[in-house]
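ok, trying the design again with the full structure, not the truncated one.
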């Protein structure tokens, strides 16, 4: 009996669409198939692999551990195929949607100002931007790129460095007029030190006094979920905030915020990276185009 030919790349593409679009029906529409045909294709794929890839319920699909592993490998293989076609002269233009997660601070001060240029250069790319300081699961949230601040943990993610920024303690003139300007670490005890409402990899404000670096906790009466929120609180005169230099540079120049304790600055910097799933192999042209643009025009300093 002749062996039935299996279109493995076609199966992978449909499976990836099911995962990224969140269901059989949207994947079927994207692939010009019926939901029943997509369901049968996934069932055949699972049967051939001898493993369940998706847990199905009436409301949602959830990847199994085997499904997660297969999804990561499948996206790499499809990216390799796309790259092979690109090298051969096919599909050079970046086309499609790219989902990005980034902090509100990076979005407002770095990304938004350069987006018109990107959109003009790449009219076939659409961007879906989610602003959050939370570290999202790129696979679970179907995210292509995440811009993250702070030290990079060891993981399967690939990172491109976007530079680093100094951290500056600032306050509004109205706050300092009312509560005074601190001149030492001890003085900070009587000030409202605004902080983040979630655990950070590096916590506290690093200050150097008498040759020793100390970490001062931000234990004020108000916390916020992102740096841009802290900036707005500082501008309103709520308290002191330690913020990325690129987010307050214009405020300081305009006199809206005043840098304090500069002589005690320990020189700590915060690095920024654009991260994505994969091991450094070829990427879809739509994702690679955004990463290349961020590396050139989305630098932090």
């Amino acid at each position: 009996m002749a062996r039935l030919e299996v279109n493995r790349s076609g199966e992978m593409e449909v499976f990836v669409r099911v995962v990224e679009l969140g269901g059989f029906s949207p994947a079927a529409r994207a692939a010009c198939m019926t939901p029943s045909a997509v369901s049968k294709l996934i069932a055949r794929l699972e049967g051939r692999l001898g493993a369940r890839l998706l847990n199905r319920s009436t409301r949602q699909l959830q990847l199994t551990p085997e499904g997660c592993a297969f999804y990561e490998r499948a996206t790499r293989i499809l990216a390799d195929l796309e790259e092979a076609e690109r090298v051969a002269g096919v599909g050079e233009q970046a086309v499609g949607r790219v989902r990005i997660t980034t902090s509100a601070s990076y979005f407002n001060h770095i990304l938004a100002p350069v987006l018109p240029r990107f959109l003009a250069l790449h009219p076939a790319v659409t961007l879906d931007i989610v602003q959050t300081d939370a570290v999202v699961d790129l696979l679970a949230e179907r995210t292509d790129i995440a811009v993250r601040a702070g030290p990079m943990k060891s993981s399967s993610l690939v990172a491109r460095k976007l530079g680093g920024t100094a951290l500056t303690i600032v306050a509004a003139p109205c706050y300092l007029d009312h509560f005074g300007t601190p001149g030492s670490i001890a003085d900070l005890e009587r000030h409202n030190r605004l902080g983040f409402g979630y655990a950070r990899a590096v916590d506290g404000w690093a200050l150097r006094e008498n040759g020793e670096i100390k970490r001062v906790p931000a234990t004020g009466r108000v916390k916020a979920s992102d740096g841009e929120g802290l900036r707005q609180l500082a501008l309103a005169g709520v308290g002191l905030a330690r913020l990325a230099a690129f987010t307050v540079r214009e405020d300081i120049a305009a006199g809206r915020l005043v840098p304090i304790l500069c002589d005690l600055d320990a020189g700590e910097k915060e690095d920024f990276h654009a991260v994505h799933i994969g091991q450094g192999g070829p990427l879809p042209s739509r994702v690679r185009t955004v990463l290349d643009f961020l590396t050139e025009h989305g630098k932090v300093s």
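Keeping the full-length input from now on. The chain has nine helices and 13 strands.
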